[in-house]
Each structure stands twice: as structure tokens, then as C-alpha cells.
């Protein structure tokens, strides 16, 4: 993990220290440590001279800018209509079963977090899920178990 | 450059209006009322509630009147069947997520959402009631403000207020979609974040989602307790605001009626914060002159200039959070409310032969931050809580209504003694620039022995609604003991609304200003536009209240704080001299650095 202050300063060099730099900075922090904590958001507010409530508001607007600690691999299962009709419930149940956690939870070894997300634009290949930035499409129960096993090995 | 004009028709009537204005403005010009919720004349356009929709010939959708600029040849209908149906749906949808419990809601009778529900005769739940699923929370931990999310319609007037008027953004919109809500940083309780308790969000909220914490029942209880002696003090801006809550008009001066009403409510003694405002001028004026001497003559580096005023507790909390490095610049004078409180349980109790613990001190303030101020641990110099309960102008009006009084029919009455006398200089504390003007009237006279060189004592450059004002007063032909001030041009600045305070403080910080004295009030217009004043509020209304304040000043026999006979007496009998030992003990205070967020 990079020091958050350095990370922010680096981004400010590219994007300037006004509001428009907010998104790239938040994305960079999340990429680096998977979530934004209170201190991070204070640092960002300080660097851009905006309010912490504004930073928090922006962070909570975007699903991918987590403000609670997440596991190393964040799994997001699409819940929107096409994936729903293609059988997302079974996929989700399988994940709960394999990982032994519920929606929003993280495994005790901090490896996996299970979340539900909205449409990812892969409707023609549902059901789909994301593991961090990688998309997995046309999922079946078996496929999901294999994918999780692979990540368990990593 | 002349502005272009646009011709359009509203409900078949032609209207000509400046380009850049909205359909809402044009309709107002023709006296067609279009309902609004997210719109507020103080704030930028949000266009998020859609209750102001109108029909436009040729357009497929219904434009929002508050957010759509007028255009040449437009044809607008504000009351078509389509429009009425759409508005009704908007209100019904809002209500589907709204904990409608008007009869037990603090905003009952004063709520813009309720008014719309009445207007559109909402009689049943057309849409699924979602309140139970929402998990709404109430934050009532602050001594000043209650935030109840179940009453919030997410119009974001509070967010825009805290950002635009106060530059703080303590409140923001968090989450999205059906989880969207108004919250502080990490959804912490308001009292634990950078909020100043100014209450501007409260006085801009259309519903019961943000309200003052009210102490009406507690005050009735102490009034009804025969063992207690309840004194009440009234802030300068209450006398020009209270009427608005009681069927009178903005700008109506109701000092005498207010005194009569308070007496009828059962307060044992009806006294005036204006008395302690005059006292504040004696202390603060002396403090300024002392600071000037120490800085200019003794070259004492520990003395900080510019000195800023300290009577606005919202401003104090703001500087404690945002510019703590300037806390030594803030006058150590307590606010008039707290000076009064400290004296009520010492000087007043002694003079009246009362035990301090039997004296309850209540204050009527245009302000919610005063509730917080009274709660500060520093404010117990009498050995007790100096001010027990703070009621806003709105709460006092509620009590007057409860008591069944016909307010406008009351005969004028006068304040009690002691601590009931005041001057015009104290009255103008209620307006931005007023403390500055009052201080100048007295300080100039102390130093030169002559009245301030402005016609009829009216120091016009410090008056008005301009966000940041500056004035320079040249001091000449001084008395011998003030020789060091001969020829000095006293440089003053005034800001109201914390966004303007920020502009001013940033200027000071950047070393771009040479001010000696700065007056800052947290609320726009000063106390007359305080977070505890009647609603609605706009610059038009603020201006009327301001005119009333200066009329009140001119109507009084004495208009300089040092001419207040009761103030002169309290120095003789009790305090000694300004900045003396007793004053320090009771009338001055300290501040503390707080975290920036
Ligand atoms: S906020 Fe308004 S509509 Fe809602 S319960 Fe209170 S008074 Fe009724
Ligand atoms: S708290 Fe009041 S002003 Fe703020 S969004 Fe809710 S209803 Fe609007
Ligand atoms: S009380 Fe004032 S500072 Fe606090 S949230 Fe409301 S507007 Fe902002
Ligand atoms: S519905 Fe699942 S990706 Fe679009
Ligand atoms: S008042 Fe026009 S959209 Fe809210």
C-alpha cells in the first residue's frame, strides 16, 4: 500500500487540486487498498479544500468506491432484470454456500466480499459477476465453484 | 448594457420579462402561483422535486418552471389537467416515502409539504407506503437541531444552504436511488461534526426534517413553578421578527407587544438582551482600544489585530473549526446573551434578594446556535448554568399562540428594571454591521470626546445586505490620553453569512488586509436573518426587518451604549470598570480549537 498522502499528491499533479480531481483520487485510493476509510476521506478533503461530507457523498454515490473494508476479492453479482431472468439467484445462492457469507459480508480470512450490483452491460451473457475488475459471464453453478476455487489458490 | 427581453404567454396572458429569468419568475410577475419545494430564492436552482411542472405548448414533457428559462414565443399553462395530475403524483410519491404524522409533527401547520397535500387534497395512499422499509433515523443529540430523516423529501435546500450561504457543507447527499439521504460525514450526529448550529438549514427546510430542538414545555414548567423566579431576556432581532409568526408583516416592530405578551405568559421579570448588548459595547470597545494601544504603542506582539467580534456563537464555532490560528484575534467578550445570563444569577439575584439557585434564566433568540452556546461548559461563570433555556423567535410565537393571546391587539408595555434599559446602539446589534456601528459610536466618543462624524449618528457604510463591507473612520483631535490614535484611520470590515466570513478571513490570512476591527455574524443579514427567525426568509424580507431595526434605533432617546443609565449603574455598583476584575470573571470567556472536519 502506498501512503495515501503521496498518492493524493501524485494525482493532484496530474489533475490539479480542484474538485475535478476528486474522482481520480478516490479511484486511486480504492484501487490501492480496496476501500476508503475515515482518515483517507479527511486527507482528500484537506488536499482539495472541500468538505468531508462532500467526499463521503461522492464516495457513497458510486458503488465501486467502497467506504467499508472489503476482502481482497470483491465479488459483485448482477441483480438487474436480464441477469435475474437468466438465473442470478442460483449463482448468488451458490456463492453464499461456497463462501459461507451473506450479502455485504466478508469472509473471516478477508479474502472475499460478496455484493450485489446493478447491470454491468453484459445482459446478453447473463448471469454475470465481477471479481474485482474481471468479468465472468454465462455463469452456472459449476462455473462459479471453479472460479472461487481458482481464487482460493491465488 | 441593456438586458434583452422575452415575450411569452402564460395561461393565455402575454408577459414580457428579462431574458435569463425562469418560467416561475414570469408566472410570479402575472401573479400566478406555481407551487415549489426545492426552489428557494436564496439558493441556486436544483430542479429536483418536479412539483413546479407546467405545460408548454409543443413540448412532449412538462418542464420544471423553476429550472426552465423563458424563451421568446413560449406558451405556458400552469393549471391544466395534465399539470394538476402530475403535481398530485409528485406529492403522492413524496408521501409514499414520508412518515406522515402531521398531528404529532413539530412542523404541523408550518410545513410546505403539508400545504401541498392540503392543496391537492391527497386523501389516500395511491402508491405503496415505503416508510417501514426505510430504516429512517432521527438525530436529536445536538442541543440545537433535530434531524429526522423520515420527514425529509431530499429537496436539498439544506445542502445548498450549508454550502452556498455558509461555505461549510456539513450536510451532503449520500448514497443514491432509493437509499439517497441527507447526511453529515459518515452520517455522524450533527453535534460531532463541523456544523456551527447556525440553523440556516433549519430555516430553509420546507418540512419537519430539520427543526430546532424546542424547550417550550420546559419553559412552561419553570414558569408554573411558584418557587422559581423566571427572568426572560429578548434579543434585539426578536422584536422585529416575532410579528411575522403572529399574523403581522415583515418589518413590523412589536417590542411593546412582545413585552406585554411575555409578562402575560407569566415570566417574573421581562428584561432585555439589549441591556447586555450595551454592556458588550463597553467591554468590547474598551478591549479594542486596549488592544490598539498595546499593539501600536507598547509594540506588544502577543496582542492580536484585527480584533473580531464574538457575539455570534455560530461564527465562534466556525472559527474554532476553520481558523483556530486566529482565536487570539477574537474578542474575549461573551455574547450579550451570556453576559446577561452570568449577571442574572449574580448581580440581579443579589439586587432582588433572590437565591441564585431559584433564578431561572430564559432567553428568546433569533438563533439556534444560542442554544448550543448556552450549553457550552464555559458558560457557567455564575456557578450555575448562566442561561437555562433558549427559545427561538418561532418557539416564543408558539407559546403566545398556546396562551390564546390576540397578539396584535396587545397594548405596548415597557421592560422591567433592572437590566431592562437599552439604547439604539443595542437594537442595531440585530443587523449586520450593527455591532460595528454601535462600537464606533462609543469608541470614537471615548477617544475624541465628540460624536462619530456621521450625520445623525448613522454610519451608513457599515449598513446593508452587501456580503462584505469595509469602512474607514479617521480619528482626529483626540483627547490627550489617546494621543497615539491621533490621525489613525480605523479600518473596519463586516461580513455576514459564513461564506462571506470565509472570504474575509482568507483575505486576512493572505495578508491582504489591514483591518483593525472585524464584525462577523454567522447568518445572512445578521441576527435578523437568524436560524431561529420566522420562515420564510428572503433578501426582500431581510431588508424589511433591517429597515425596522434602524427605525427602532432612531426612535429611541439614547442611541449610544455608554449613555445607558443602567449600564452606568452596574459599573458603579457591581462591576467596577470595563475589563475590570469582575468583568473578567463574568463577562469574558475563552475559546478552543476544534478539529477541521
Ligand atoms: S413534515 Fe410536514 S407533512 Fe410531514 S408529518 Fe410533518 S407536518 Fe406533516
Ligand atoms: S432536510 Fe429538509 S431541506 Fe434538507 S433535503 Fe430534507 S426536506 Fe429538504
Ligand atoms: S446548522 Fe448551519 S452549519 Fe450546521 S448543517 Fe445547518 S446550515 Fe450547516
Ligand atoms: S442485467 Fe446483468 S449485466 Fe445487464
Ligand atoms: S421547485 Fe421546481 S423542481 Fe422543485
What does it look like?
The complex is a heterodimer of chains A (154) and B (597). Chain A has 154 residues and is α+β, with helices and mostly antiparallel strands. Chain A has two domains: 4-61; 73-153, Glutaredoxin (3-Layer(aba) Sandwich). Chain A is built from seven helices and four strands. Chain A has a four-stranded mixed sheet, with helices on one face. Chain A is elongated. The mean pLDDT of chain A is 94. Chain B is of the alpha/beta class. Chain B folds into four domains: 5-79, Ubiquitin-like (UB roll), CATH 3.10.20.740; 102-212, Alpha-Beta Plaits (2-Layer Sandwich), CATH 3.30.70.20; 216-275 and 337-409, Rossmann fold; 279-333 and 429-534 and 556-587, Fe-only Hydrogenase (Larger Subunit), Chain L, domain 3. Chain B is 35% helix and 13% strand. Chain B contains 20 helices and 17 strands. Chain B has helices spanning 23-29, 81-96, 112-119, 131-134, 157-165, 200-204, 216-224, 242-245, 255-265, 273-296, 313-322, 336-351, 369-375, 393-402, 424-427, 434-448, 498-509, 539-555, 565-575, 581-587, and strands spanning 5-10, 13-18, 55-56, 75-77, 138-139, 145-148, 172-174, 181-183, 210-212, 229-234, 269-272, 307-308, 359-365, 389-392, 468-474, 489-496, 517-521. In chain B, helix 17 links the parallel strand 16 and strand 17. In chain B, helix 10 (273-296) crosses helix 16 (434-448). The longest helix of chain B has 24 residues, at 273-296. Chain B is globular. The two termini of chain B are 44 Å apart. Chain A binds chain B through residues 38, 41-42, 45-46, 50-57, 60-61, 67, and chain B through 163, 168-176, 183-186, 193-194, 596-597. Bound molecules: iron/sulfur cluster (SF4) (3 copies) and FE2/S2 (inorganic) cluster (2 copies).
Amino acid at each position: 500500500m502506498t501512503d495515501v498522502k503521496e498518492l493524493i499528491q501524485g494525482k493532484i499533479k496530474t489533475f490539479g487540486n480542484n474538485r475535478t480531481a476528486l474522482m481520480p483520487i478516490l479511484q486511486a485510493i480504492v484501487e490501492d487498498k480496496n476501500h476508503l476509510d475515515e482518515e483517507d476521506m479527511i486527507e482528500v478533503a484537506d488536499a482539495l479544500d472541500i468538505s468531508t461530507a462532500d467526499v463521503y457523498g461522492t464516495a457513497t454515490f458510486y458503488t465501486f468506491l467502497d467506504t467499508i473494508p472489503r476482502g481482497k476479492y470483491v465479488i459483485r453479482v448482477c441483480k438487474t432484470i436480464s441477469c435475474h431472468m437468466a438465473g442470478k439467484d442460483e449463482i448468488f445462492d451458490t456463492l453464499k454456500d461456497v463462501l459461507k457469507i451473506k450479502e455485504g459480508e466478508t469472509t473471516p480470512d478477508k479474502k472475499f466480499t460478496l455484493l450485489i450490483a446493478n447491470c454491468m452491460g453484459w445482459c446478453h451473457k447473463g448471469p454475470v459477476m465481477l471479481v474485482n475488475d474481471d468479468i465472468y459471464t454465462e455463469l452456472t453453478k459449476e462455473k462459479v465453484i471453479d472460479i472461487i476455487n481458482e481464487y482460493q489458490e491465488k | 448594457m441593456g438586458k434583452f427581453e422575452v415575450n411569452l404567454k402564460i395561461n393565455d396572458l402575454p408577459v414580457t420579462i428579462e431574458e435569463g429569468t425562469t418560467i416561475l419568475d414570469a408566472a410570479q410577475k402575472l401573479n400566478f402561483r406555481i407551487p415549489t419545494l426545492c426552489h428557494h430564492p436564496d439558493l441556486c436552482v436544483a430542479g429536483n422535486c418536479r412539483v413546479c411542472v407546467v405545460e408548454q405548448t409543443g413540448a412532449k414533457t412538462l418542464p420544471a418552471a423553476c429550472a426552465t428559462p423563458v424563451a421568446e414565443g413560449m406558451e405556458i399553462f400552469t393549471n391544466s389537467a395534465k399539470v394538476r395530475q402530475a403535481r398530485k403524483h409528485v406529492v403522492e410519491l413524496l408521501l409514499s416515502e414520508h412518515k406522515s404524522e402531521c398531528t404529532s409533527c413539530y412542523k404541523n401547520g408550518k410545513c410546505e409539504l403539508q400545504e401541498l397535500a392540503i392543496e391537492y387534497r391527497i386523501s389516500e395512499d395511491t402508491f405503496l407506503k415505503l416508510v417501514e422499509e426505510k430504516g429512517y433515523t432521527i438525530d436529536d443529540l445536538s442541543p440545537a437541531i433535530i434531524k429526522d430523516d423520515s420527514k425529509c423529501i431530499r429537496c436539498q435546500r439544506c445542502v445548498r444552504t450549508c454550502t452556498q450561504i455558509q461555505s461549510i457543507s456539513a450536510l451532503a447527499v449520500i448514497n443514491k436511488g432509493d437509499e439517497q439521504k441527507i447526511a453529515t460525514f459518515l452520517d455522524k450526529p450533527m453535534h460531532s461534526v463541523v456544523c456551527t448550529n447556525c440553523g440556516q438549514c433549519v430555516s430553509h427546510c420546507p418540512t419537519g426534517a430539520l427543526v430546532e430542538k424546542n424547550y417550550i414545555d420546559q419553559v412552561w414548567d419553570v414558569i408554573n413553578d411558584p418557587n422559581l423566579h423566571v427572568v426572560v431576556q429578548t434579543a434585539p432581532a426578536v422584536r422585529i421578527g416575532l410579528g411575522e409568526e403572529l399574523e403581522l408583516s415583515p418589518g413590523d416592530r412589536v417590542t411593546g407587544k412582545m413585552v406585554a405578551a411575555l409578562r402575560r405568559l407569566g415570566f417574573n421579570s421581562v428584561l432585555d438582551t439589549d441591556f447586555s448588548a450595551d454592556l458588550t459595547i463597553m467591554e468590547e470597545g474598551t478591549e479594542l482600544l486596549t488592544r490598539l494601544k498595546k499593539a501600536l504603542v507598547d509594540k506588544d506582539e502577543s496582542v492580536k489585530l484585527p480584533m473580531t467580534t464574538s457575539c455570534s456563537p455560530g461564527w465562534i464555532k466556525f472559527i474554532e473549526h476553520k481558523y483556530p490560528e486566529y482565536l487570539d484575534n477574537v474578542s474575549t467578550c461573551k455574547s450579550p446573551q451570556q453576559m446577561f445570563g452570568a449577571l442574572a444569577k449574580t448581580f440581579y439575584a443579589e439586587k432582588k434578594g433572590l437565591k441564585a439557585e431559584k433564578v431561572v434564566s430564559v432567553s428568546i433568540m433569533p438563533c439556534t446556535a444560542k442554544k448550543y452556546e448556552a450549553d457550552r461548559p464555559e458558560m457557567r461563570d455564575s456557578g450555575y448554568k448562566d442561561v437555562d433555556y433558549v427559545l427561538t423567535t418561532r418557539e416564543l410565537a408558539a407559546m403566545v399562540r398556546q396562551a390564546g393571546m390576540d397578539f396584535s391587539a396587545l397594548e405596548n408595555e415597557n421592560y422591567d428594571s433592572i437590566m431592562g434599559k437599552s439604547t439604539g446602539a443595542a437594537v442595531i446589534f440585530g443587523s449586520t454591521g450593527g455591532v460595528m456601528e454601535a462600537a464606533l459610536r462609543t469608541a470614537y466618543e471615548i477617544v475624541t470626546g465628540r460624536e462619530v462624524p456621521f450625520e445623525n449618528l448613522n454610519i451608513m457604510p457599515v449598513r446593508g445586505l452587501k456580503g462584505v463591507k469595509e469602512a474607514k473612520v479617521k480619528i482626529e483631535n483626540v483627547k490627550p490620553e489617546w494621543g497615539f490614535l491621533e490621525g489613525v484611520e480605523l479600518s473596519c470590515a463586516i461580513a455576514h453569512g459564513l461564506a462571506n466570513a470565509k472570504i474575509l478571513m482568507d483575505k486576512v490570512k493572505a495578508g491582504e488586509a489591514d483591518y483593525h476591527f472585524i464584525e462577523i455574524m454567522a447568518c445572512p443579514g445578521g441576527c435578523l436573518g437568524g436560524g431561529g427567525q420566522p420562515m420564510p426568509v428572503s433578501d426582500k424580507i431581510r431588508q424589511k426587518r433591517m429597515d425596522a431595526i434602524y427605525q427602532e434605533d432612531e426612535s429611541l432617546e439614547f442611541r449610544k451604549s455608554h449613555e445607558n443609565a443602567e449600564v452606568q449603574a452596574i459599573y458603579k455598583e457591581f462591576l467596577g470598570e470595563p475589563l475590570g476584575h469582575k468583568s473578567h470573571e463574568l463577562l469574558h470567556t475563552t475559546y478552543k480549537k476544534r478539529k477541521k472536519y
